[in-house]
Specification:
This protein is an alpha+beta fold. Helix content is about 30%, strand content about 15%. It folds into two domains: about 55 residues, no CATH class; about 100 residues, RRM (RNA recognition motif) domain (Alpha-Beta Plaits, 2-Layer Sandwich), CATH 3.30.70.330. The chain is elongated.
Length: about 180
């Protein structure tokens, strides 16, 4: 297989698997299309959901944290390759400094480690040299946290913060990717 995968191919296969199709069924369907010379449709319309579908699944607003991403074996990823703004939300501007552009970061510590916002703030302020007034909203979830920091964090500082420990766990900081810039 020399041809590079289409950027949305992995998402399409994942969606088909979630819809109940096996990998073998997907491969056979694609092989049949190639043999018949059929071009796959550019975009397939999503099937309409019935009223029953909406009653079974909790609304997006009722979920407090995004569903964790899973690897190809179905196990939850400890440290994400990247999270998007769609998954974790946009950074909010600071009330005291609305002119400072902020961006959101994922942290590998959460309620499971009994971490407090002050501990995260202290670690980042001390290790990155950021004044506390420029550290934005900190959200702590079960297995991770998010924090809003000034935009343009230098890579060497991010690399250092990944190894910074809070409550015995590396922060593992990851920049949340804006889908427009990804």
């Amino acid at each position: 297989m020399d041809a590079p995968a289409h950027p949305k191919a992995n998402d399409a296969v994942q969606q088909l698997v979630e819809d109940g199709h096996s990998h073998k069924d997907i491969a056979l369907a694609l092989a049949g299309m190639v043999m018949d010379g059929v071009e796959p449709p550019a975009e397939e319309a999503k099937p309409r959901k019935s009223h029953a579908d909406f009653e079974q699944k909790p609304s997006r607003e009722s979920r407090k944290e995004p569903r964790p991403l899973k690897d190809k074996h179905g196990k939850e990823r400890e440290v994400p390759l990247s999270y998007t703004v769609k998954e974790l939300g946009r950074a909010r501007p600071l009330e005291e400094h609305p002119d400072v552009v902020m961006e959101r970061f994922w942290l590998g510590v959460g309620k499971k480690q009994s971490v407090k916002p002050s501990e995260i703030m202290g670690a980042i302020a001390n290790e990155a040299g950021i004044e506390g007034e420029f550290i934005g909203k900190i959200n702590i979830f079960e297995h991770y946290a998010t924090i809003d920091l000034p935009e343009g964090m230098p890579k060497p500082i991010l690399k250092h913060l990944k190894k910074t420990r809070v409550r015995g766990t590396n922060l593992g900081i990851v920049r949340v990717v804006d889908s427009h810039s990804a």
